[in-house]
Amino acid sequence: MKKKGHPKYQKATIMCACGNVVHTRSTKETINVEICSKCHPFFTGKQRFVDSEGRVDKFYKKYKKKS
Question: What structural domains and CATH numbers belong to the chain?
Answer without folding.
Answer: 7-47 (4.10.80.400)
